[in-house]
Design brief:
This is Sporulation related protein. This protein has 54 residues and is α+β, with helices and mostly antiparallel strands. The chain has one helix and three strands. It has one domain.
Length: 54
């Protein structure tokens, strides 16, 4: 895994049951984005969440 660059930002995405994709939030670190995605998934909704570099 490459070291995270200081200027790298991350975005949490959500896809709903109809295939629509939405940006949930932009984060300063991958860890912050992964944590948010995990919290959203833990709510039990059927949406798909993932993290991607911005």
């Amino acid at each position: 895994m490459q070291a995270e660059r200081a200027s790298q930002r991350w975005v949490v995405w959500r896809q709903d049951d109809n295939g629509n994709r939405y940006e949930v939030r932009r984060c300063d670190t991958r860890a912050e984005a992964e944590q948010l995605a995990a919290e959203m998934e833990a709510r039990g909704h059927k949406q798909l969440y993932w993290v991607a570099p911005l």
